[in-house]
Amino acid sequence: MTSRDKHPMIRQRPLRLLLCLHDQAIVEAVCRSIDIVLPGTETIVAADQEMLARLSREAFDALLVSETVGPPSTLREHLVKVLSYHPGLFVVPLVAPDQPHQIHCVVDLDLPYFLTLPLDPLELNLILQRLQLKIDHLGPRQPHRSTPRNTRQIKGFIGSGPAMTRLFELIHRVAEDDFATVLILGESGTGKELVAKAIHGKSRRHAHNFVPVNCAAIPDDLLESELFGHLKGSFTGASHNKTGRIQYADQGTLFLDEIGDMKPALQAKLLRVLQEKEFEPVGSLKAVPVDTRIVAATHCDLEELVKKGAFREDLYYRLSVVPIQVPPLRDRLEDIPLLLDRFVEAFTTERSREKITFSPEAVTLLLKHEWRGNVRELENLVQHMAILHGGKTIRPQDLPEKFLRHYTPTADPDGMALDRHLFSDEVFLRERAELCAPMPVEERAISLEEGPVDFNDLINEFETELILTAMRFTSGNKKEAARLLCLKRTTLLEKIKKKGLEGRWT
Ligand SMILES: Nc1ncnc2c1ncn2[C@@H]1O[C@H](COP(=O)(O)OP(=O)(O)OP(=O)(O)O)[C@@H](O)[C@H]1O
């Protein structure tokens, strides 16, 4: 009879432990003790970069963690994140007594269990026994991640770290005050439009229209009548009265994306709407009252534009009553596993495709990427992978080249070098191109020897061909075409309209 059989209250559920330890000798010592004290335990060893990703995706009973070779703050940073995302997890840091910052970290975070280095086998065994007891009394482990503390989550909006928690809090507060103008700042693809929609959705205006206008995608001469509307005959081509988008946003929210691209004459007219709550359609002298909340967004440095005289200072101050900064994805890498889950679920369900999963090694590489295109880049990657590898687990060698800078093929048990070419970007693009016939984007040799070329004409022509290609490829599905081109749907719609391309892809 074993010692466990003598204690009927102790169940025999095998445990799952995550070890994030930075010395192979310590890993071996811990594994030896586990084999003796907790036989049958599943032990997973992870590098510190993949620790958070694994904890988000899989269920573990405990984490044993020691400090990386990185800066001294790493252990604390990791522990703060782990404790806030997984409050029920049994966390045991391994600390060196001659490293005061490590001891402070345990004390400050009020961690009940820790081990000191060098490891004392008796101390280790004791901790492991406590772990078994605690877990058997607490019942089954929580599947996957738990909801972060103090987060007022917003449906469909992924974000778990402190910066996103603050953002959600701000969205709720701004939504309650229904008049203040909001200026959303952040790099392209960080989710500025999602923030604007969330503010609208949480405000009392939610039953009315949310009207987005991309100021960069509409030609300057059309933007005024798009926004404010016009009277029949007010200019050549104005064959009928037109209602402006601002009117559609009455009682609702007008979202002015890329506000930094708005020309000064129009800025003055917008300022009037903000100050007087009324506007005049083009060609009319009669002011129309309007009750709309204006939410603007930009990836530009508006203060810099003000200094250069390209943006009105008074409008800048009017717009930025409440500035909201959306953090870039590289500053919130902990969200990547959650975003992956969400985008896989959304894309495969919407397109009736087989699901994909990302291997821990692939996730580790994603955590090292710079994400200049932010969340939109991640969303596009998921779609790219789901098209190519539906039903499979994505391994490092399946990822596009740009993710492999930190990858060592020798560490790849499957021999990346052998099948890398099968999954490259070029193959993906070729497959996609073959499906898309006829293919209007031709190979073109541009020679400057024959004289100057018109840069704008060429770019314009290429843009047209690119849009037509995407529209043909998606059989006229604008939403899907916008995805393939990494554009917002509204931007694509504006471009199609501006260039008169409607129907030309058939
Ligand atoms: N936190 C998030 N959770 C879930 N999806 C997100 C999140 N952030 C962004 N997305 C998705 O990423 C894509 C890009 O987001 P969005 O269009 O809001 O970015 P943006 O900052 O307005 O981009 P741009 O500056 O190019 O206009 C959208 O499909 C959006 O739904």
UniProtKB/TrEMBL annotation:
<protein>
    <submittedName>
        <fullName>Transcriptional regulator FleQ</fullName>
    </submittedName>
</protein>
<keyword id="KW-0804">Transcription</keyword>
<feature type="domain" description="Sigma-54 factor interaction">
    <location>
        <begin position="157"/>
        <end position="387"/>
    </location>
</feature>
<keyword id="KW-0547">Nucleotide-binding</keyword>
<keyword id="KW-0805">Transcription regulation</keyword>
<dbReference type="InterPro" id="IPR002078">
    <property type="entry name" value="Sigma_54_int"/>
</dbReference>
<dbReference type="InterPro" id="IPR027417">
    <property type="entry name" value="P-loop_NTPase"/>
</dbReference>
<dbReference type="InterPro" id="IPR058031">
    <property type="entry name" value="AAA_lid_NorR"/>
</dbReference>
<dbReference type="InterPro" id="IPR003593">
    <property type="entry name" value="AAA+_ATPase"/>
</dbReference>
<dbReference type="InterPro" id="IPR025662">
    <property type="entry name" value="Sigma_54_int_dom_ATP-bd_1"/>
</dbReference>
<dbReference type="InterPro" id="IPR009057">
    <property type="entry name" value="Homeodomain-like_sf"/>
</dbReference>
<dbReference type="Pfam" id="PF25601">
    <property type="entry name" value="AAA_lid_14"/>
</dbReference>
<dbReference type="InterPro" id="IPR011006">
    <property type="entry name" value="CheY-like_superfamily"/>
</dbReference>
<keyword id="KW-0067">ATP-binding</keyword>
<dbReference type="Pfam" id="PF00158">
    <property type="entry name" value="Sigma54_activat"/>
</dbReference>
<dbReference type="InterPro" id="IPR002197">
    <property type="entry name" value="HTH_Fis"/>
</dbReference>
<dbReference type="Pfam" id="PF02954">
    <property type="entry name" value="HTH_8"/>
</dbReference>
